[in-house]
Amino acid sequence: MAATAAMAPPADARALRKRLLSAAILLPLALVNVWLGDPYWAALVCLFALVMAWEWARMCIGPAGGLPLGLDPAGFLGMAAVGLGVLMAATGRYSPALALLALGAAAVTWLAGRGGLAGRRGPARVAPGEPLWQGFGVLYVGLPSVAILWVRASPDGGLSALLWILVLVVAVDSGAFAAGRLIGGPKLAPRISPNKTWAGLAGGIAAAMMVGWLAAAWLGLPHRLPLILISAGMAVVEQAGDLAESAFKRRFGVKDSSRLIPGHGGFLDRVDGLLAVALAAAAAQCFGGGILAWTR
N or C terminus: which one in the chain shows less Cβ crowding within 10 Å? Predict the structure, then answer.
């Protein structure tokens, strides 16, 4: 048994192998659907959004044995609001989609406060006096899902912008993981995520800057520095989104949002940084053209 233990790969190596395998499956799936555009990309985003809404509701209410999908009525209403909002955005009706998500969040909060958390079996992770978390999940999942559809639909380089975003997020995650494990050092936010280090953040930024340089070269931009700097900023946003989801999981008392993806946990665990970057890219798009227009 000792020999077997000695021959087994280190835990970090096994974790990295699982992460790379998951990325090798999910990233090509996403890139192909981004390239094909609607309705394929919209369908994939809608599927991811529904799964993430399910994961969020499950994290909020805790074990709910005997209930369909482990959700109470507020959880089902949250999934419905997210799904309808994303479908509306997929048809180009972005402002109504945002309004629907806001109304859905309010309705979920009201229902949870009226007893939507009651009747479950098992302890609740969020007390009935705190129903706001369920409603917040509708916005936390729904707004970035609508944003990423909006970025892709932009006539001013939407396809290029989204491809850059997806590759950047994967590069930041991989760079941060590798640098954090190889270098170690002071913790970035030990109370929220004890495994994250300042070295990992620096590695993520370096990886993002490399992606920015490659993207600028691929797009034939006359000046590469703007996109390199924007990429570095997006790396900070991506890591902030990762930390935010870690804080939510710590609040709910869970390690992973689910166990759907080997090596990562759930869909929320895989795309937490992407949610933040999608919102930042959509916000930049509000100030004229796509985000890549800033680099010209």
Answer: N
Predicted confidence (pLDDT) per residue in 132-171, tens digit: 899 999 999 999 999 999 999 988 788 999 999 999 998 9
Point out the domain boundary residue: 153, 179, 204. Answer: 153
Is residue 173 one of the residues assigned to a domain? yes
Cβ-Cβ contacts under 8 Å for 82 (sequence gap 6 or more): 49, 50, 52, 53, 101, 104, 138, 141, 142, 145
Same domain, 220 and 187: yes
At position 189, the amino acid (one-letter code) is: A
Task: Assess if residue 3 is contained within a domain.
Answer: no
Q: Facing residues of 189 across strands?
A: 193
Q: Count of CB atoms within 10 A of residue 14's CB?
A: 12
Give the total number of structural domains in the chain.
Answer: 2
pTM of the model: 0.87
pLDDT in tens, 201-233: 999 999 999 999 999 999 888 888 999 999 999
Quick one: pLDDT at residue 199? 93
The single-letter DSSP state of residue 62 is -
Q: Are residues 182 and 289 in the same domain?
A: yes
In a domain, 2, yes or no: no
Q: Domain residues for 62?
A: 15-153
Q: Which two tokens stand for residue 261?
A: 């993806």
CA 174/CA 152 separation, integer angstroms: 24
111 in any annotated domain: yes
Give Cβ neighbours of residue 68 (< 8 Å, ≥ 6 apart): 76
| Torsion region of 121: left, alpha or beta (phi above 0 gives left; psi -120 to 50 gives alpha) | beta
Beta-bridged to residue 261, according to DSSP, are 265
